[in-house]
Amino acid sequence: MPAPLARMLHSTAALALSALMVVMLALGLAPAAAQAARDTNSYDGNIYALYAGNGSLVPPRSTLAEAMAEHRPIVLGFFLDDSAASKQYAVVFNELQRLWGRSAELILLSTDPLQNRETHGPTDPASYWTGVIPQVVVFNTDGKPVLDESGPVSIDAINAALTEVTGLKPQGDVKLSLSRDVNELNSEIVPSS
Question: Which of 18, 80, 93, 94 could cross-link with 54 by S-S, CB 3.0 to 4.6 Å?
Answer without folding.
Answer: 94
